[in-house]
Each structure stands twice: as C-alpha cells, then as structure tokens.
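Hello again, I could really use a second opinion on something today. I've been staring at a protein lately and its backbone has me curious. You're getting the sequence in one-letter code plus the fold written as tokens. I'd be grateful if you could look everything over and explain what you see. No rush at all, and the record is pasted right below:
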Amino acid sequence: MDLEKYLTDINFKKQLQCLNRKLKNKRIVIYGSGQLFQTICKYYDVSKLNIVAVTDGKYSTQNKEQSVCGYSTILVEEIEELKPDFILVAILNYTDIVYNLENIVYKNKPVKIMPMVQKNFFTILKEIWLN
C-alpha cells in the first residue's frame, strides 16, 4: 500500500490540524512505530504534538529501537510511568488495539486512547466484518 497516497486521500493534513488543536499541551505516547508513523513523520510536521515517546507491541528489552523519527522509544509496560494524557495508535487496522487498550489495559485510568489516523465509519465496518 502506498501510505503517502493513502494519507493524502483521507486528508490527513486536516486531521493533523485537528489533533494539534485538540491535543495542545497534552502529553502523547504514540503506539505503533512502523511504516504508518514513519510515513507520517516523513511527509507531515508532527512537531506541534507533544510526543513524549513511541512504543510498539513488538518491542521487548532485546529488540527495542533507540528512537523512531527522532522520538525516544519505550516498552509498552513503561507507558504509565510517563503519565501521558493520550495514546495515539498509529496503526492502520487499529480497532482491536484501541479496544484492548481502552477496555483492558487502561480501563479506569485517566489516559485517553484514540487512533492517530481517523477512518470513516464504513471503512471501520468493512475491516471488522472482513477480519
């Protein structure tokens, strides 16, 4: 998939402007250090977001990268120590991850979880139905 074209097609530039306004002065951890987040960093200015770290479910103490797009990386287990206001999930098929983070891992905790890239309702339904 051509992620640059995908981000252009869904008007991520406008979505990022909304994120910048909504999350101004909020501490953010990015969940997902893969191609989507790296493409966003390459083609969009995320410097207005107060990103304190990047994490990924694939990280362990043996294989954690030192940084992604200039942001320090942490293990998933270390998220709470940073006391983020938001966790932005930077993964294309985010529904399961957002659900698990909201309803299992961070249930009854003050952190809010949301996808970094918003999809329309019908796209999400298709993904759920086809999985």
